[in-house]
Design goal:
The chain is α/β, with parallel strands linked by helices and 167 residues long. It contains 6 helices and 6 strands. Strands 3-2-1-4-5-6 form a 6-stranded parallel sheet, sandwiched between helices.
Length: 167
C-alpha cells in the first residue's frame, strides 16, 4: 500500500459511458491534490466505434495529465495485476445495476468507495472495508477519499476486510 508514498486510486469501467461519472472523481482528486500526493488510474473498455475524447478533455481542462493515466482495452490478466499496484478502488457511477469491478477490487484486497446508486454498494461494509457516498456529491466523495489518505494502517485494515468479504 501507498506505493511511492502516494495514494494510488483505480477506477474500472466503460470509458465512453458518461454514467460512470469520471468527472466527479476527477474533481474530488483535483481538490485533494493540493494536500495529498494522489495518482488516478482510469481503466476501461473502449469499443472500436466509440471515443473517450470527452474524458481526455475533462483531464486536460483540469490540468491533471501528470496525475491521471487512462488505460484502455487491457487483457484480463494485466488488469488483475494492476489492482495490486493500487491502494483504493472508487466507483462513482450512477444507475449502475451491479458492477463486477468493485468485487474484483475487493478480492485483490483493496478498500472500496462506491456511489449509492450502484447495486454492489451492498458489499461495502461502511467504515470497515470502504464507504458509500451520495451519487453526484463531489464533496461527499472527496471526504470519503480523504478519510482513507491519512495512514497506511487504515488502508491496510480496510483492504484486508475487503478480501475477507469477497472470499
Amino acid at each position: 500500500y501507498l506505493n511511492e508514498d502516494r495514494i494510488n486510486i483505480i477506477i474500472v469501467g466503460k470509458l465512453w459511458q458518461k454514467r460512470k461519472r469520471h468527472p466527479d472523481l476527477l474533481d474530488a482528486v483535483d481538490q485533494l491534490s493540493d494536500e495529498y500526493d494522489i495518482k488516478l488510474t482510469i481503466v476501461g473498455s473502449l469499443q472500436e466505434h466509440k471515443s473517450a475524447s470527452w474524458l481526455h478533455d475533462c483531464i486536460d481542462s483540469r490540468d491533471m495529465n501528470d496525475q491521471v493515466e487512462v488505460l484502455q482495452n487491457l487483457p484480463y490478466p494485466v488488469l488483475q495485476d494492476l489492482y495490486f499496484e493500487h491502494d483504493l478502488f472508487v466507483l462513482p457511477s450512477e444507475d449502475e445495476p451491479a458492477a463486477v469491478s468493485i468485487l474484483e477490487a475487493m478480492a485483490h484486497g483493496l478498500p472500496v468507495i462506491s456511489s449509492d446508486d450502484n447495486g454492489t454498494q451492498w458489499y461495502v461494509d461502511e467504515g470497515e472495508n470502504g464507504y458509500v457516498f451520495e451519487t453526484g456529491n463531489v464533496d461527499d466523495l472527496r471526504d470519503k477519499i480523504e478519510s482513507m489518505t491519512h495512514d497506511e494502517e487504515t488502508i491496510s485494515r480496510m483492504g484486508k476486510r475487503s478480501y475477507e468479504l469477497a472470499a
